[in-house]
Amino acid sequence: MTDLQFISTTTTDGVLEREFTLGDSIHGMLWSPAAPPARSAPLVLLGHGGGRDAKALPMVGRGRHLVAAGFHAVAIDAPGHGERPRTALDDQQIAAMQEAMSTGVPVGPIVVPYNLHLAERAVPEWQATLDALEQLPGIDGPFGYFGLNMGTAIGVPLAAADARVAAAVFGIFWYDGTLAEHARRITVPVEFLLQWDDQHIPRDSGLALFDAFASTEKSLHANAGAHKEVPRFEVESMVRFFDRHLRS
Amino acid sequence: MTDLQFISTTTTDGVLEREFTLGDSIHGMLWSPAAPPARSAPLVLLGHGGGRDAKALPMVGRGRHLVAAGFHAVAIDAPGHGERPRTALDDQQIAAMQEAMSTGVPVGPIVVPYNLHLAERAVPEWQATLDALEQLPGIDGPFGYFGLNMGTAIGVPLAAADARVAAAVFGIFWYDGTLAEHARRITVPVEFLLQWDDQHIPRDSGLALFDAFASTEKSLHANAGAHKEVPRFEVESMVRFFDRHLRS
């Protein structure tokens, strides 16, 4: 894969922020230390949540934060997200989720299979992105992965399929038999976030997904609060986790 | 309480380490910044595990670590521990625990009521210690508490009874109705450790105890591994937790 194109470049507070395309489908953001010559550092993959994209504010914040802590970071738009075209299935599933949300019907039975379907399309795109980025000067493997919600539905199959992912932070997702099969093939260190008072994800479902990982080093961080109330200090914890596992 | 006596004082690597007695029963260790004038800093109470005492190596390590991070730290011997006399009940319970351990019988039904009995004796001793220490120059309230195993059996009733405990790290203990009643009266921030593969404490029992705390800010850290395999990085997490909650 040699068609990586940087389509815009900005530098803010020591962070080099590059928007890129790869082939016809992949669009993403790469955050790197700006100091020349580009410092060699490990790369952390950022998987965004449903309805967001690589340029969403939480991605930009985490990307810059990781660069300040001495990493590169990259995010790519999931299929049907950002400016990527939606399929008829995308439209139908999004409508079904919105309908469930507005009527108070459990949303998990819609989100889980739809996100796993997106993962089948997203995993090869992440792998093509890694193929391209590992050619760049200053980017060290192996890689870390951070993604909650849909970022977990995509990241778990990715980490199960690609040995370049050496440590991963997942969470805020339902137990599912297919997803658990992927989790049982993951042996790298895992940090897993769960919201103790999640109004969408039953507590036992999140605990069962954490339990499925085969990793001998795995940590569950379960915080009091609702689905979207993941505490900000978990970003610091994520940085320290990658410090422990991606520095050689 | 004015009979606080420092019986030995050493200074190592910037840490002033003072062994003290208070009245006839209390014996403990106080770790403080050595730099004169004594820096004013919050105090963290360290509750030791069963069979250990205030001078045990994990206590000394955590005390010095906390001082390096800008805190004072204190540990006192629990009743029947260290050089304190044992009662007939102490001897009987310790023998029963050793018997259970050697025969593979569940040890929880012995440890839990015995440790809660010790807590009834230990809580007033901790409170007397706080009464004395808060008179010392350089020690700021409110206080933090860190204690696992028996340190949780003692610390939970202490934190429920004494509003000077403003943040606490507990864990590695069984659910029990009496202990949970105390936990339901605790509203300060709590970090709670659980070993996912604990051979003595059933997973659901630990999760139920975490669930009992009334705190709106509480975080469960469940790590893969057996009863005694709490990862070392949890000490760092404890320091950051107290940084967030004890600095005004």
TrEMBL record, chains A, B:
Q: Name one GO molecular function term.
A: hydrolase activity
- Gene3D superfamilies in UniProt: alpha/beta hydrolase
Could you list this entry's UniProt keywords, alphabetically sorted: Hydrolase
Name the SUPFAM superfamilies on file. alpha/beta-Hydrolases
Determine the domain of life of the protein's source: Bacteria
Kindly give the InterPro entries that the UniProt entry links to this protein. AB_hydrolase_fold
Q: What is this protein called?
A: Alpha/beta hydrolase
